[in-house]
Amino acid sequence: MDFHRRFLGLQVHVRAAGALLLSAACLTLANNGTCATGWPSFRGPTGDGHAPVECAPPVEWGESNRVKWSTEIPNRGWSTPAVLGDQVWVTAATVDGKDSFVLSLDAATGKIKVNKQLFHTEAPEPLGNDVNCYATPSPVIEQGRVYVHFGSYGTACLDTRSGAVVWERKDLQCRHYRGPSSSPILFENLLILTYDGADLQYHVALDKKTGKTVWKTDRSVPWNDENVPGQMAKDGDLRKAHSTPLVVVADGKPLLLSAGAKAAYGYEPRTGKELWQVRHMAWSAAPMPLYRNGLSYFVTGSGKTELLAIRIGGQGNVSETHVAWRYDDMVAKTASPIIVEDKIYMVSDDGMLTCLNAESGKQVWRCRVGGNYAASPLLAGGKLYFFSKQGKATVLEPGAEYKALGTNTLSEGFMASPALVGNTLFLRTRTRLYRVE
Fold first, then answer.
1. pLDDT tens digits, 24-41
2. For strand 201-207 and strand 392-396, is the pairing parallel, antiparallel, or unpaired?
3. What does the alpha-carbon distance between residue 293 and residue 425 come to, in Å, rounded to a whole number?
4. Which end of the chain, N or C, is less packed with Cβ atoms under 10 Å?
5. Helix H segments across 284-407?
6. Domain limits of the chain?
7. pLDDT of 96-140, one tens digit each?
8. pLDDT of residue 15
9. How many whole angstroms separate alpha carbon 400 and alpha carbon 422?
């Protein structure tokens, strides 16, 4: 059997032959009565959109149905809520990006307990699109600490009991051009950040207790875009990426999977050493990588958009030797794919839902669900949840055929990905945070 472990905060997760076992101290959400491990970061406890097996959220809800509370969130943010114990943490920023905030809400009542301005930037770079905002990176939480990241505008660690800032960094820079996007991740004693800007592209790992730099590694792919015609090459999109990395254990060792512009990478997460790369011709990769049974999965981004299945192993440039398969039809550019057993599910930006065989890359089925998508999907209670920008949540049963179980609507629409604790969904729309159960 292929066993691997991934450590994130208090949780230890073991995957065996596609089944997920959880070994963790159970934290009970106030008034929920369900044993839960929390939702510590973007894409959840295992970094792949899978909720713990005991979770069973509702299939149907609406503005006045199964909503325990909803709270207006000031300013703007697309970050996924981070939930632990009786606290829900989100980030936000003013529309012009000059001021960045962190908020904590009481999970039982929705009351805002902390609304703290962290950073001020006099002249943030304009976003240039309506897909991103200045508070897109999601918080990551562990017992006693929450970490928030606004890219080059600042990163901070806060005490979750008092809301006090433990440490902060404002010296890590890049030209985001389209705004900061990549979320921080925790690995052992490290907080790992991704800066894939138009000018600089690198990972940096900070000591999570002190905020001091432990390692920093630049992207190594040659750009070869100096003579590419058009505005994109001039302005820097061809060197940008938006993806959040994933730490897995492959062949008994921790491995950091990271999607950059022009290449997919594997790194040693304790040291930042680059292990391998697979080159491609795309840029602005946004979906988070996935891993299953010795294969890593990367969406390349814009331009030549593909889903790549890459065999783990090798050293250096393995572009010609380690790509198991490629898929290039209606690939999701923004919402991350999700794996359930031996199948990959992904929804394109314009609402085409595709199911692929994870081993071969062959299409199993396809269905247009409509709408536009940026939020990443969720697997919970044996069901898949997809959330559109128009506010529609489609629930379906995974399998060899498309089988919808229900659709639900929250009118403001979804840019943020969902969080789930026990049987409770925390859904952030463009303007509000909902507790649905």
1. 323 323 333 333 479 999
2. unpaired
3. 29
4. N
5. none
6. 3-436
7. 999 999 999 999 999 999 999 999 999 999 998 778 999 999 999
8. 35
9. 27
Tell me the three state secondary structure of residue 406. Answer: strand
Instruction: Tell which phi-psi region holds residue 71, choosing left (phi > 0), alpha (psi between -120 and 50) or beta.
Output: beta
Q: What whole-number distance in Å separates Cα of residue 50 and Cα of residue 339?
A: 9
Query: 87-93 and 82-84: which strand pairing?
Result: antiparallel
Count of beta carbons in the 10 Å neighbourhood of residue 289: 27
What residues contact residue 30 under an 8 Å CB cut-off, 6+ apart? 85, 86, 106, 107, 108
Pair of tokens at residue 363: 């299409």
d(CA 425, CA 2): 31
Reduce the DSSP state of residue 336 to 3 states and report it.
Answer: coil
Alpha-carbon distance values, 114 to 90, 104, 429 (Å):
10, 5, 19
Q: Mark residue 220 as left, alpha or beta (left: phi above 0; alpha: psi -120 to 50; beta: remaining).
A: alpha
Please state, for a pLDDT cut of 70, what percent of the chain lies above it: 89
Using one digit for the tens of pLDDT, what is the confidence trace for 264-295?
999 999 999 999 999 999 999 999 999 999 99
How far is it, in rounded angstroms, from Cα 275 to Cα 264?
A: 11
Query: Measured between alpha carbons, how far is 429 from 416 in angstroms, rounded to an integer?
Result: 7
- Out of 21-25, 121-125, 400-404, pick the least confident: 21-25
Tokens for 204, please give them: 């940096």
Query: Does the domain formed by 3-436 have CATH 2.130.10.10?
Result: yes
Write down the pLDDT at residue 236: 80
Cα angle at 98 between 93 and 104, to 5 degrees? 30
| CB-based contact 266:276 (threshold 8 Å) | yes
Only one residue has tokens 């894409």, namely: 43
- Tell me 52's DSSP state: P
